[in-house]
C-alpha cells in the first residue's frame, strides 16, 4: 500500500463473476486517480461505438489520493462510464461517505464490466469481495436498500452506493446515491448501473491511509481549515436562498426570464420552512465526510421522511417549474433521491413538456390526462412517478431530449440541452463566464466543470452569494487576474476602452480553460470543488500541490497538476472525438443564441460570433486546434499521449507531420 | 482545575473530522478505526443519529482501577488519563471496564490507547464545525448542561405561546 492510496484497483466482471485485483501504481504517475484514471480506462478498455447499456460498457468508481484523508472536503468519488444520455464520457462526482470507506478497505477504484444474469449487489469487507443476490432489494428505494444491506450484513458502519427503481427501469437519467442527498446524478450513471443488473456496492474498510509526512500534512490541513472557517457562512445554502433575486442567477421555466414575481413568496417561504422542519440531528445542517462547509440542509417532514438538500436542488420545482410551494418541492426532491433520479434532468424534461402543453402542442390526450400547466404541483408529482416507471407519457419524458422530441413529432424542438444533457436552472446566458463554461463542459448540460467560480460574475458589478469568494492572493485568483489583465492590455493597445463588462466576450475562453483544469485537478485528487474552485479560501492549487507532496513524500508542483489536468482533458476530448463529437457540439441550445430574456438583462444576447470568439480562445488556451477543437499533435506528444495521437491520425482526425 | 471534552450529540452533523484529525495527529495515519474519538452513527430511513464518543475522564476511573500493571494515571497538568505505552501489556482489561468503550487496544501498536486531550489542546474540538464538542473546565460541565436544558424549555414555551411560528432558539449566550 502506497502513501495516500488504498493501493489496489478492484476489477469485477459481472458476466463471469471474476474478481481481479491489481496495483494502482501503474496509473498513478500520469493519471493520479479519480477522474484521470476513469478517463484513461474508458478510452483504452472500451472500443468505439459501444452501446452504453450493453455489457461492453465499463462503469468506474474511482478515488483520488486525497479521498479519505484530512484534506478538507475529501469525501469524493468520481463515477464514469460511456453515457447513455450524451453518448460520450459520462461523469458524476459525488460526496458523502462511501469513497473514504472504499479507501479504508484498501482500494482506489472499482472497475465493473459485463452484466450480471440476475440482480446482484457487491459486498466488500477489506480484502473480502463477494457478489451477492439482490432479488430481495430489487424495487426498493435507495434509503431502504441501504438500511436493508446494513442490517443483513450486520454492520451499521457499512457505506452503500445504490440505484433506486429509476435505475432498475433504466430511465434516461438515473442517479447513483449514497445516504440521502449524495448523488452521482448527471449523465445517467445510475442507468448504466441498472443495465448491469447491479443494485448496490456495500463497503466496509478498517485500514487506514498512510501519510508520508504526517506532521507536515496535519499542520497544513489544520491551517487550511482555520483560514477557511470565517468564510463558511457564505456557503450556507439556506442563507443563499434569502437573496432576491437568487444570487446564483436562476432562470424561470425554459429560460423565459431572470425574474419571477413569486420569488418573494419563495424567499419568505424558504427559511421559515427550514426553521419549522429542520431535522432533529445536526440542527438542520449536514454535509459530507471531513468537510466543514456543510452545504446541505437537513429536514424532516412526517409525510415524506427526512431529506438532505443543497443549493441547486432548490431551483428544480420552483424556478424551473414555477411552483413556489416548499412542500411540493420537498416531495419532488425526496422522490428523486429515493427513486434515484437526476432531479435536474427530470425538472428540465417536465418544464419542456409544460411549455408544449401551454402552447397547445400537446394535450391531455398525450399526457395521460394530466394537466401540465406551469406550477401545477399535482401534475409535477404525478409526472415524476410516471417517469420513474416509464409509464405512459412518463416514458417520453424519461428519454433523452432528442428521443423525447422525436416521440412527440418531427418539428418539435428538444428540451434545453447541451451535448444532449438537459440544462440546469442556473443562468448560463447573461454571465459570459458561465456561457462558455457550459458550452465547453466535457459532459455538457451545465457550467460546473469549466469555470473559475469566483470570476463568474466578472464585469457585472455583482459580487454576491456563491461567487466572488476567492481570496485575492490565491493562486487561482492571481492566475485569473493575469489572464484578465492581458486581455485589458490588448484592448487598450487596440484603442478600445480597457474594461471587460458582463456581456463582453474577452478573456472568457482562457478563464474557462483555467477553470476546467482546476476542476479536473479536484475531481482527480478527490477533493470537493466547493472547497477549491468555488470557496477557494485557504485551499488553492498551492495547497493541493503541497498536500500531495507531504502526503506522498514526492514533491509535486502546481505545474505537474496542471499538466495532468491538460492530459486528462485531452484524453476525454479524444474519446468524444472518437465517438463522433465535433466542435459544433460545443454550443448553446439553439434557442439561446441571438435570444433575449426578460428581466434584469433584456437587451443582452449571446451572438454566434461572440460564442465562436470565446471558443477559439478556449481551444487555444487548451492547446487544441482552433479549427477542429481537437488537441494538436504537439500538445498530445508533450503530454505523453503518443498512443492517442496515433489513434487520431488513424481516424483521419489529425495529420501526421 | 482540569478540563474535559463535553459532547452535544444533537449538534453533530456526522462529518468525522474529529476522527480523521485525531488519528492523524496521534497515530500518524488517517483512519477512523484508530481515532480516540468516534462518531457512533445510526441511520434508518434517512434519519441519521450521531453520537460522538470519547473518554469522559471519570473521577473514579475503572480503567485505572482494573489495569493489572498500573499503566494508567492522571496527567497532573491537563487531568487527562494517560496510558503508559511502556507499561501497557495490551490485555484489554481497561476496554472491558470502561462504561463508554473509550479505551481500546490498538492492534498496530499492541497497546491500549485513550484520549489524551492532545496535551491540553484537543484537536477534535478545534476542528469540529458543528459545536458538538466543547473543551471546558471540569467544574463548568454542569452549568453548561443546565443552560442547554433551559434553552429547550424556553423554546418549548415559545412554541406553546405562538403557534405556528418558526422555532427560533434563543441566543446561545444565555446566562
Q: If you had to describe this structure to a student in words, what would you say it looks like?
A:
The complex is a heterodimer of chains A (657) and B (175). Chain A contains 23 helices and 18 strands. Residues 463-467 of chain A have low confidence and may be disordered. Chain A has three domains: 8-204, 4-Layer Sandwich (Aldehyde Ferredoxin Oxidoreductase,  A, domain 1), CATH 3.60.9.10; 241-388, Aldehyde Ferredoxin Oxidoreductase Protein, subunit A, domain 2 (Orthogonal Bundle), CATH 1.10.569; 432-650, Aldehyde Ferredoxin Oxidoreductase Protein, subunit A, domain 3. Helix content of chain A is 39%, strand content 13%. In chain A, the strands form four sheets. A six-stranded mixed beta sheet of chain A has the order 2-1-6-3-4-5. In chain A, strands 8-7-12-9-10-11 form a six-stranded mixed beta sheet. Chain A has a three-stranded antiparallel beta sheet with strand order 14-15-16, covered by helices on one side. Chain B has a domain at 56-114: Alpha-Beta Plaits (2-Layer Sandwich), CATH 3.30.70. Chain B is 27% helix and 22% strand. Chain B contains five helices and nine strands. Chain B has helices at 17-27, 62-66, 93-97, 123-127, 141-161, and strands at 3-7, 29-30, 38-44, 47-53, 72-74, 81-83, 104-106, 111-113, 133-137. In chain B, the strands form four sheets. Chain B has a two-stranded antiparallel sheet. In chain B, strands 3-4 form a two-stranded antiparallel sheet. A two-stranded antiparallel ribbon of chain B has the order 5-6. Chain B starts with a strand and ends in a 14-residue tail after the last helix. Classes of the chains: A alpha+beta (657), B alpha+beta (175). At the A-B interface, helix 4, strand 13, helix 7, helix 9 and strand 14 of A face helix 1, strand 2, strand 3, strand 4 and helix 4 of B. Strand 13 of chain A pairs antiparallel with strand 2 of chain B, so a sheet runs across the interface.
Which percent range fits the helix content of chain B? 25-40%
Helix vs. strand class of chain B: alpha+beta
Number of domains of chain A: 3
Radius of gyration of chain B (Å)? 18 Å
CATH topology of the largest domain in chain A: the name is Aldehyde Ferredoxin Oxidoreductase Protein, subunit A, domain 3
CATH topology of the domain at 56-114 in chain B: Alpha-Beta Plaits
Overall geometry of chain B comes to globular
CATH architecture of the domain at 56-114 in chain B: 2-Layer Sandwich
Question: Total strand count of chain A, please?
Answer: 18
Number of helices of chain A: 23
- Mean of residue pLDDT of chain A? 93
Integer-rounded radius of gyration of chain A: 23 Å
Q: Work out the strand percent of chain A.
A: 5-15%
Amino acid at each position: 500500500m502506497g502513501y495516500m492510496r488504498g493501493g489496489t484497483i478492484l476489477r469485477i466482471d459481472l458476466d463471469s463473476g471474476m474478481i481481479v485485483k491489481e496495483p494502482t501504481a501503474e496509473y498513478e504517475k500520469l493519471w493520479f486517480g479519480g477522474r484521470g484514471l476513469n478517463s484513461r480506462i474508458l478510452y483504452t478498455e472500451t472500443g468505439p461505438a459501444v452501446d452504453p447499456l450493453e455489457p461492453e460498457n465499463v462503469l468506474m468508481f474511482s478515488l483520488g489520493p486525497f479521498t479519505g484523508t484530512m484534506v478538507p472536503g475529501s469525501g469524493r468519488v468520481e463515477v464514469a462510464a460511456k453515457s447513455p444520455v450524451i453518448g460520450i464520457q459520462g461523469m458524476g462526482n459525488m460526496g458523502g461517505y462511501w469513497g473514504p470507506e472504499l479507501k479504508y478497505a484498501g482500494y482506489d477504484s472499482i472497475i465493473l464490466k459485463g452484466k450480471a444474469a440476475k440482480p446482484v449487489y457487491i459486498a466488500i469487507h477489506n480484502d473480502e469481495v463477494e457478489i451477492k443476490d439482490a432479488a430481495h432489494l430489487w424495487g426498493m428505494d435507495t434509503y431502504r436498500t441501504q438500511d436493508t444491506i446494513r442490517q443483513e450484513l450486520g454492520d451499521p458502519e457499512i457505506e452503500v452506493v445504490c440505484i433506486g427503481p429509476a435505475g432498475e427501469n433504466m430511465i434516461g437519467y438515473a442517479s447513483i446515491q449514497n445516504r440521502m442527498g449524495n448523488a452521482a446524478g448527471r449523465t445517467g450513471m445510475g442507468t448504466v448501473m441498472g443495465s448491469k443488473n447491479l443494485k448496490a456496492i456495500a463497503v466496509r474498510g478498517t485500514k487506514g491511509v498512510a501519510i508520508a509526512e504526517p506532521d507536515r500534512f496535519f499542520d497544513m490541513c489544520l491551517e487550511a481549515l482555520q483560514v477557511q472557517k470565517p468564510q463558511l457562512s457564505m456557503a450556507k445554502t439556506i442563507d443563499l436562498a434569502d437573496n432576491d433575486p437568487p444570487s446564483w442567477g436562476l432562470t424561470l421555466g425554459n429560460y423565459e426570464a431572470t425574474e419571477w414575481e413569486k420569488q418573494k413568496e419563495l424567499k419568505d417561504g424558504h427559511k421559515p420552512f427550514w426553521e419549522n422542519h429542520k431535522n432533529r440531528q445536526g440542527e438542520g445542517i449536514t454535509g459530507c465526510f471531513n468537510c466543514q462547509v456543510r452545504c446541505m440542509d437537513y429536514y424532516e417532514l412526517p409525510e415524506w421522511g427526512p431529506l438532505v438538500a443543497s443549493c441547486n436542488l432548490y431551483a428544480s420545482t420552483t424556478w424551473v417549474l414555477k411552483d413556489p410551494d416548499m412542500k411540493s418541492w420537498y416531495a419532488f426532491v425526496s422522490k428523486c433521491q429515493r427513486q434515484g433520479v437526476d432531479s435536474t434532468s427530470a425538472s428540465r424534461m417536465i418544464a419542456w413538456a409544460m411549455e408544449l402543453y401551454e402552447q397547445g402542442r400537446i394535450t391531455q390526450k398525450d399526457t395521460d390526462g394530466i394537466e401540465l400547466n406551469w406550477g401545477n404541483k399535482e401534475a409535477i408529482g404525478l409526472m415524476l412517478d410516471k417517469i420513474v416507471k416509464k409509464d405512459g407519457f412518463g416514458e417520453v419524458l424519461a428519454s433523452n431530449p432528442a428521443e423525447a422530441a422525436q416521440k412527440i413529432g418531427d418539428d418539435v424542438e428538444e428540451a434545453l440541452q447541451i451535448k444532449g444533457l438537459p440544462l440546469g436552472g442556473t443562468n448560463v446566458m447573461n454571465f459570459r463566464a458561465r456561457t462558455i463554461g457550459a458550452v465547453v463542459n466535457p459532459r455538457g448540460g451545465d457550467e460546473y466543470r469549466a469555470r473559475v467560480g469566483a470570476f463568474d460574475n466578472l464585469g457585472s458589478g455583482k459580487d454576491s452569494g456563491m461567487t466572488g469568494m476567492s481570496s485575492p492572493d490565491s493562486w487561482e485568483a492571481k492566475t485569473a487576474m493575469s489572464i484578465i489583465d492581458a486581455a485589458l492590455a490588448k484592448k487598450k493597445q487596440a484603442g478600445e476602452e480597457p474594461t471587460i463588462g458582463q456581456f463582453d466576450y474577452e478573456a472568457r475562453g482562457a478563464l474557462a480553460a483555467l477553470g476546467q483544469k482546476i476542476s479536473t485537478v479536484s475531481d482527480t485528487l478527490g477533493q470537493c470543488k466547493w472547497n477549491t474552485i468555488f470557496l477557494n479560501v485557504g485551499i488553492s492549487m498551492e495547497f493541493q500541490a503541497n498536500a500531495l507532496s507531504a502526503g506522498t513524500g514526492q514533491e509535486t508542483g502546481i505545474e505537474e497538476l496542471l499538466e495532468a489536468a491538460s492530459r486528462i482533458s485531452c484524453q476525454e476530448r479524444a474519446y468524444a472525438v472518437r465517438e463522433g463529437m465535433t466542435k459544433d457540439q460545443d454550443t448553446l441550445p439553439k434557442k439561446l443564441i441571438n435570444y433575449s430574456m426578460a428581466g434584469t438583462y433584456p437587451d443582452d444576447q449571446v451572438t454566434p460570433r461572440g460564442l465562436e470568439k470565446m471558443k477559439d480562445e478556449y481551444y487555444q488556451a487548451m492547446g487544441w486546434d482552433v479549427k477542429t477543437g481537437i488537441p494538436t499533435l504537439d500538445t498530445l506528444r508533450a503530454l505523453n499521449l503518443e498512443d492517442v495521437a496515433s489513434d487520431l491520425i488513424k481516424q483521419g482526425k489529425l495529420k501526421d507531420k | 482545575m482540569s478540563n474535559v471534552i463535553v459532547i452535544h450529540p444533537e449538534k453533530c452533523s456526522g462529518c468525522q473530522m474529529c476522527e480523521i484529525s485525531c488519528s492523524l495527529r496521534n497515530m500518524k495515519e488517517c483512519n477512523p478505526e484508530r481515532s480516540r474519538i468516534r462518531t457512533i452513527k445510526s441511520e434508518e430511513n434517512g434519519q441519521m443519529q450521531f453520537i460522538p464518543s470519547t473518554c469522559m475522564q471519570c473521577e473514579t476511573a475503572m480503567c485505572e482501577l482494573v489495569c493489572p500493571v498500573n499503566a494508567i494515571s492522571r496527567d497532573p497538568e491537563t487531568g487527562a488519563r494517560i496510558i503508559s505505552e511502556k507499561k501497557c501489556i495490551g490485555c484489554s482489561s481497561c476496554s472491558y471496564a470502561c462504561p463508554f468503550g473509550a479505551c481500546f487496544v490498538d492492534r498496530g501498536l499492541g497497546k491500549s490507547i485513550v484520549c489524551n486531550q492532545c496535551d491540553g489542546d484537543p484537536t477534535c474540538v478545534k476542528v469540529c464545525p458543528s459545536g458538538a464538542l466543547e473543551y471546558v473546565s471540569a467544574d463548568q460541565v454542569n452549568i453548561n448542561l443546565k443552560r442547554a436544558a433551559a434553552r429547550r424549555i424556553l423554546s418549548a414555551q415559545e412554541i406553546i405561546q405562538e403557534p405556528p411560528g418558526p422555532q427560533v432558539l434563543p441566543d446561545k449566550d444565555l446566562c
